[in-house]
Design brief:
Helices cover 23% and strands 18% of the residues. It contains twelve helices and 20 strands. Strand 4 and strand 5 form a beta hairpin. Strands 1, 2, 3, 9, 10, 11, 12 and 20 form an eight-stranded mixed beta sheet that branches. A six-stranded antiparallel beta sheet has the order 6-14-15-16-13-19. The chain has a four-stranded mixed beta sheet with strand order 5-4-18-17, covered by helices on one side. InterPro entries: FAD/NAD-bd_sf (IPR036188), GMC_OxRdtase_N (IPR000172), GMC_OxRtase_C (IPR007867). Keywords: FAD, Flavoprotein, Oxidoreductase.
């Protein structure tokens, strides 16, 4: 028998960036908010011994326990989907802050082209630029409409950067803090790309270049360039994360509380409204019902989609007919690039998650695609994130896999190797989607989420083109040996690639082709909101967090408006 708790104004499912932003904005307006987090509480104090590569980067201390809940995966519909038994291709965060704790900190705004990609592509190249099986669509919002929310997120996070990229959207304000240090290695990239006629700029970074107080009064420290960002929490409080910004802001209002070890298994509903959620205490396995006037799903991409599916809210996507939108347009990312082996030794130890330089000359529609068999592109960057010894062992081609020559090459090249990498955009395809698995269940008795995904011809063409550009840059940087990344064939879920999963709960202007409107309000349940990278109608050439943060502020505004006036917001 589930215990029914006191009703609140707003309940969020997950307490990462999106859950924290919703909580802070709503609590400041006087709404009573409960955050349900299935992981544990943590803070900067918990990371005083964080420089343990094996514990955090290899054994995944901060990540989801796949023995309790995982996904099943297959490349195509004619294959049997099998459970993902270990983390590999992407890393699912768990605990206070979610993936916003273990992220690198690159904080981009998606391009104006991204938000109107279908309209702009059709207008410039014709409606048949991509075959019909690519389910491309606009987002139902423009960059200009979203710009104030980008600005608000960047000021909350204190993002360090410079407005020197000629290809991104117009900004209403400068970055809150100046860019990070331009190291000698980044100067190599800057010189080479400038020589080739490109426009390099420092990456926008949530590893702050200087101490900063945000508009809510939260203090963020300056980065120490220790090189332990991705997969780690920050012991300095210098990598902006939810637990040092929006979560304390929400708590200070007195209108916010968090329940930890609270795994939501169902969104409850009556007619065309939701009434709250049912969750299970992960320690005692007691069941609770949390009634609420508004429910906001603020968990990770995969979990938001799964929760809607098991709660039977919305129409599931059918790849045979193309009908339905829940689970549709799953997209990942393509990772072209090249490595260079040099004669001189370099300091690759010091770094930070978002310390780097980039060019956008081959991102979005910054270059002509008329004679190319793909659209979009990639941001091309050189990052100096700190070469940790367990996971880093760059070797030139034809090096033996073991023995004396292997050891010699490992020692020689550890500090003599640099890479230029691209984050390639991923276009949606009718056969790449999420649904529920009919065989496997999680520890709570719910079906696992099933992921069907493979690289497409578009992906392979983009990867080849951008890899060639990366190799040219590396050659210009003076590498004695340049090795481009191998061509991609079938997607493999085992090796790590990025945690930039998108789609499944896509936004749009039409309830027939999207799950939520541009306030992230569910088309079928007006008091249900769903926010995260799952709202992306495709994946772009950047990290998603900056755009997720902007959407969260847009969603928070919608929740507040709905709480005041009710009804559909569009």
């Amino acid at each position: 028998m589930a215990t029914t708790l006191d009703k609140v104004d707003v309940v969020t499912v997950g307490v990462g960036w999106t859950g924290g932003i919703i909580a802070a904005e709503c609590a400041k307006e006087g709404l009573k908010v409960i955050g349900l987090e299935r992981g544990q509480e943590r803070s900067t104090a918990d990371y005083s011994m964080v420089h343990d590569e094996y514990r955090y980067a290899v054994r995944y201390e901060l990540m989801q326990d796949l023995s309790k809940e995982t996904i099943t995966f297959r490349n195509s519909r004619n294959q049997r989907a099998l459970p993902m038994r270990q983390l590999g291709s992407f890393l699912l965060g768990e605990g206070l802050g979610g993936a916003g704790t273990h992220w690198n900190g690159q904080t981009w705004r998606f391009l104006p082209y991204d938000f109107e990609i279908k309209s702009m592509t059709d207008e410039k190249y014709g409606a048949n630029k991509l075959p019909a099986e690519y389910t491309l669509q606009d987002w139902g919002i423009t960059y200009d409409e979203l710009e104030p929310y980008f600005d608000k997120f960047e000021k909350t996070a204190g993002i360090s950067g410079e407005d020197k990229n000629p290809f991104w959207g117009t900004r209403s304000a400068e970055y809150p803090t100046p860019p990070m240090k331009k190291t000698p290695l980044l100067s190599k990239f800057e010189t080479a790309t400038s020589n080739l006629g490109y426009t390099p700029f420092m990456l926008p970074s949530a590893n702050l270049s200087e101490a900063y107080e945000n508009p809510d009064g939260q203090q963020i420290s300056a980065c120490q360039y220790c090189g332990f960002c991705e997969r780690f929490g920050c012991e300095y409080g210098a990598k902006t994360s939810p637990e040092i910004t929006v979560v304390p802001t929400a708590r200070e209002t007195g209108n916010y509380d968090i329940r930890f070890n609270a795994n939501v298994v169902e969104v409850l509903k009556e007619g065309d409204r939701v009434t709250g959620v049912r969750y299970i205490d992960t320690v005692t396995f007691e069941e609770f019902i949390q009634p609420a006037e508004v429910v906001v799903l603020t968990s990770y991409v995969l979990n938001n989609a799964k929760l809607l599916m098991v709660s039977e809210i919305g129409q599931m996507y059918d790849p045979e007919t193309g009908r339905g939108s829940l689970g549709k347009n799953y997209a990942y990312q393509i990772l072209p690039g090249a490595s260079g082996f040099f004669d001189e030794q370099m300091n690759v130890f010091m770094g930070a998650g978002a310390l780097g330089m980039s060019i956008d000359d081959f991102n979005g529609d910054a270059f002509d695609h008329g004679d190319l068999d793909f659209i979009h592109g990639a941001s091309l960057s050189m990052t100096q994130t700190g070469s940790r010894p367990i996971a880093t062992n760059p070797l030139p081609p034809d090096t033996p896999a073991w023995g004396a020559e292997f050891k010699k090459a490992s020692i020689e090249n550890y500090t003599r190797t640099l890479s230029v990498g691209g984050q390639g955009a991923s276009m949606p395809h009718r056969d790449n989607y999420m649904t529920l698995d009919g065989t496997y269940k999680d520890i709570y008795g719910l079906p696992l989420l099933q992921l069907t995904y493979n690289f497409t011809d578009q992906d392979r063409a983009l990867h080849k083109y951008i890899t060639e550009k990366a190799a040219e840059i590396m050659q210009e940087m003076g590498a004695k040996t340049v090795v481009g990344r191998s061509p991609i064939s079938d997607y493999d879920i085992v090796p790590y690639q990025t945690t930039h999963n998108t789609g499944g709960t896509i936004m749009g202007a039409d309830p027939e082709t999207s799950v939520v409107n541009n306030y992230l309000q569910h088309w079928d349940m007006e008091n249900l909101f769903v926010v995260g990278a799952g709202n992306f109608a495709h994946n772009g050439g950047y990290n998603p967090t900056g755009t997720v943060g902007a959407l969260a502020y847009r969603c928070a505004e919608g929740v507040i408006k709905y709480s005041q006036d009710g009804g559909s917001l569009v």
